[in-house]
Amino acid sequence: MKRGTLKGMDAGPLKDLTERAETLKAKVRARVEHPFHLIKNLSRHRKVRYKGLAKNRAQLEVLFGLADLVLARPALLA
Fold first, then answer.
1. Which of 5, 6, 69, 77 has the fewest CB atoms nearer than 10 Å to its CB?
2. Which residues contact 62 (CB under 8 A, 6 or more apart)?
3. Residue 34 φ then ψ, to 5°
């Protein structure tokens, strides 16, 4: 939902419920998009080479696995 739409709503239970739903959606979106950020910026994987779709898929699976390790590093080092 656009921010202006939420701000324009009248105060009440519907607005509170909508704010809670938008907060939950934002949390999920942040958890899903963070590995993509790591792959694009840390691994510099911005373009896909179409020399072999199986190779591209394998490369992305490895990069996502490494991104998971980078995200879990603080817990693993503790």
1. 77
2. none
3. -65, -45
List the one residue out of 25, 27, 31 whose CA is nearest residue 67: 31
The span from the CA of 78 to the CA of 66, in Å, is 18
CA 69 to chain centre: 15
pLDDT band for position 59 (50/70/90)?
A: confident
The string over 33-46, giving b where at least 16 C-beta atoms fall within 10 Å of a residue's C-beta and e elsewhere, is eebeebbeeebeee
User: Letter for the amino acid at 20?
Assistant: R
Residue listed under structure tokens 């899903």 = 32
> Structure pTM?
0.52
Helix H or strand E segment including 58? helix 53-77
